[in-house]
User: Fold these one by one.
Assistant:
Number 1:
Amino acid sequence: MTDKQEVMERDSNVERAEREPASVILPPADVFEDADGITLQLDMPGVAKDRLNLQANKNALVIEGAALIDMPQGMTALYADVRSTLYRRSFVLSDELESDKTEASLKDGVLTVRIPKRAELRPRRIEVQGG
Amino acid sequence: MLGSLTSFDSLFEEFRRMEQQMDQLFGSGTQPPAIRSVARGTFPPINMGAAPDGIDIYLFAAGLDPKTIELNIQRNLLTVAGERRVAVKENAIYYRQERFNGPFRRVIALPDDVDPERVEAKYRDGILQITARRRESAKPRQITVQ
């Protein structure tokens, strides 16, 4: 069920994300960089593709999601480790990343975001000239 | 005048007493934890809710292969075990590795009236939902007054 989706919004404002609701979950993230770009992976269990909102502009990446939990009528809580259904996390981006080429996929509650580096800024090996 | 002063005193007394009660209820250490409770942050986090005809348990475990989840029930003890494998990319610089990686096992004590024969589980969008039905005799029922 891997769906690839282009991140559509680029220049919409990040301010929206700063109006914090009562309680949001900061999803755990892995972030790594290779020669071509940066990859993020976040655990957002319960979030389907249509309840995920990703925004990337020159300066920031904002990830939001709402978990859908299937609950029967008249349920009372017995125990809760998780006390919110909203996930949010944001990262500041840097110039060498091409945020308008950000790609994302979601599978079994794991979100993978890939932001490529500008081609001209990818590291290249410098040959050491022999004497 | 004197009367109002004493009533203020007793009001503060009352607040102090309420504070102590709150500490006893929610404060750490005062209430011994349940024998099978685990430290906060243990993977996967669990929610449990009770409905009239059953108990629902939600395990927030993203990125699992449902075929590898081991689910066992013995009387009212439910055990969920599995392994969450996070592929580590070679030749990459890791800035953060916050996601759980490795085997896990959680034991959940269900209420005594659940029927161990009638437990179902489904995995969707990274949530494992386990539904345990109550025994017929334990379900609430209307009693007609003769």
Note: Helices of chain B lie at 2-26.
Number 2:
Amino acid sequence: MKRKLIGLAAVTLAIWLSSFSLRHDSKLAQYYWFPLEPGTGFAESSQFLIYQSGCPTYCGNFSFMPYCEGGYTGYTGTGPYYAYGIEVWVEHDYPNIPSAR
Amino acid sequence: MKTLSMKPYRYLANTCLFLLITLFSYTAINKLFGLTRFRFQLSLFPWLRVHPLPIALTIIGAEIGIVVLLMTPRRILIGFIAALILLSLFTTYLLIMLLTTSNLPCTCGGVLEQLSWPQHLVLNLLFMGIAILGLVSEKFSIPHK
């Protein structure tokens, strides 16, 4: 009986947690993410190729430092990689600058 | 006296049980309600892109099956073993992909998809450890006749 309650509590917690993540609109489009030079906004080269729908710095690395990343439709190079194509998304976390999303 | 010494194992097994049920039901719910997206993401994966829908449904079914096993008192041991097998499969695939492919799409359910692949790998290993711990403590918590 106790174990059934533990199971039910776990499922309830999972449903509650899911309500937060399912609230976001699903983004089917995925981009290649590159760091942007804060002053100019130009994409810098990267040793890592990150291809996903959301900004990797904000979400992936739980960064405590300010960041600026751009999502591109393509890339060139084999490491380091260079941004290529259209810049479709900019994400940053600098104080006093409203979010670009 | 014997029952008393088994109590810590029981608590440990219950904690592992709680964590694994939370993980699998959370990821299953997110995949199920975002099936279109999950299918799309699977179609980007090497090897899995041929039949994304059956693979998506199999993964969701396996996760729900594990939750059911872990919630059935007489099937908890099997549940821990099944959880360990599924996590091992995910981890092996992830390891192979990380070693052979530089361009991996982002997937998994809910907030977990925000993790980078190395972070995901660490999380998988952590939950594999939890499954092993649960399996061992569950075995020790069962009184021998």
Note: Strands of chain A lie at 31-35, 50-52, 68-76, 82-92.
